């Protein structure tokens, strides 16, 4: 029996990067899943990989859509409820990274990042709470960033969204108390995702950790006793600049 056997989870942005690592960590521990992403082909490949990694047959459902779109999020939750009787876990992971100097930043780039990184998690949290409150149980894990406390130039939309995620995490934890709902904030430093590796030359890369190493922390959050939550966890390579970062 895995640590998450009999549990169900909805994971956004689950086909690549951090989401892929979390999906693999969860299925190895027996969790049934709904995985969302923008691209159905990516989701189909992820399902094949997840089934190969799982020790037992699991129920894996997919939803292709935009987490920043209310209609897509509504459809995703309806699909979840049609396939599962209970929601143990929601992982708000989908993210966007557009940026640039504030005086040159396109409004479309700002809206895209805020809609994906903050509006989406709010909508998912709202609908998850509507399921979890009657259950009197549930856990939400929000993937934030060290950019929630240590910003860099050219990151206005991304950093702003991650500051917002930290606030959403705390309010969700507070409002969930009386309903046995916990909320955890996972704030990664540098991760060797596919996007990061493709965009930087090897010699320019900062210290990195793998998605699987970060996923172990997400798994820890998911498997804690229900009366325990990790409100904010900063996880980064020990050689990465963080304190005093500029």
Number of helices: 7
- Per the principal axes of the C-alpha atoms, what is the gross shape? globular
Through-space gap between termini: 46 Å
CATH structural fold name: Rossmann fold
CA radius of gyration: 17 Å
The helix-strand sequence is: EHEHEHEHEHEHHE
CATH homologous superfamily (4th level) name: NAD(P)-binding Rossmann-like Domain
Helix fraction by DSSP (H/I, runs of at least 4): 40-55%
Return the CATH class. Answer: Alpha Beta
Which blocks of ≥5 consecutive residues have pLDDT under 50? Answer: none
Report what the structure shows:
With 246 residues, the chain is of the alpha/beta class. It has a single domain, classed as Rossmann fold (3-Layer(aba) Sandwich), CATH 3.40.50.720. It contains seven helices and seven strands. Strands 3-2-1-4-5-6-7 form a seven-stranded parallel beta sheet, sandwiched between helices. Helix 5 links the parallel strand 5 and strand 6. Helix 4 runs parallel beside helix 5. The longest helix has 29 residues. It is globular and about 50 Å long. The model has no long low-confidence stretch (mean pLDDT 93).
How is the topology of this model organized?
Elements: E1 8-11, H1 17-28, E2 32-37, H2 40-53, E3 60-64, H3 70-83, E4 89-92, H4 107-135, E5 138-143, H5 156-176, E6 181-188, H6 194-199, H7 211-223, E7 232-235
Spell out the key features of this protein.
7 helices; 44% helix; 246 residues; alpha/beta; 7 strands
Q: Summed up, what is this model?
A:
The protein is α/β, with parallel strands linked by helices and 246 residues long.
